[in-house]
Amino acid sequence: MGAPREHALTKQQQEAVMYRGRDLLIRGIPGSGKTTVLLRRARRLAEEEGAAAGQIVVFTFNRSLAKFSRELVAKLDNPGIEVASFDSWAIRLCVSWRVRTARR
After folding, report:
1. CA angle, 29 then 86 then 81, to 5°
2. pLDDT tens digit string along 56-95?
3. Which of 78, 66, 10, 67 is nearest to 40 (CA)?
4. pLDDT of the residue at 39
5. What is the dihedral of CA 22, 27, 30, 31, to 10 degrees?
6. pTM of structure
7. 92, containing H or E segment
8. Distance CA 33, CA 16 (A)
9. Which of 2, 58, 66, 84 can bridge 89 by disulfide, Cβ–Cβ 3.0-4.6 Å?
10. Alpha-carbon gap, residue 86 to 78, rounded angstroms
11. Phi and psi (nearest 5°) for 59?
């Protein structure tokens, strides 16, 4: 089964996907396409800008959206792009830090 059919983006969404700056904040109402824009931007960074997938983290506010986004990343054939909720990523960071400091 191939990649999911891609829906047309608005002009503002296309600008966000193509933005070449370092940081980007995407805001919108529920269902406005924020997740789609973020994931397409991550894919573009990996494919066109040479960013290693392991350098890209897409943050979400909750675990269910992170799970949904990971499924979309898999369908977009971008293994390695990390999707995490803020809290789960922070927990992994703390555990990683704890493990590293415990080894000293």
Report:
1. 90
2. 888 888 888 888 888 888 877 666 788 889 998 889 888 8
3. 78
4. 86
5. -60
6. 0.68
7. helix 86-102
8. 11
9. 84
10. 21
11. -95, 140
As given in the structure block, the two tokens for residue 19 are 């933005």
Residues facing residue 84 across a β-bridge: 59
How far apart, in whole angstroms, are the C-alpha atoms of residue 24 and residue 83? 16
Taken in order of first residue, the domains within the chain and their CATH numbers are 11-102 (3.40.50.300)
Task: Give me 65's structure tokens.
Answer: 């959206």
Could you tell me the CA-to-CA distances from 95 to 1, 81, 91, 92 in Å, in that order?
37, 21, 6, 5
SS (H, E, C) 26-75: CCCCCCCCHHHHHHHHHHHHHHHCCCCHHHCEEEECCHHHHHHHHHHHHH
Let me know: does 60 contact 90? Beta carbons within 8 Å: no
Side chain identity at residue 37, one-letter code = V
84 φ/ψ angles, rounded to the nearest 5 degrees: -150, 150
Contact by Cβ (8 Å): 41, 24: yes
Residue 80 and residue 9: Cα distance in Å, rounded?
Answer: 24
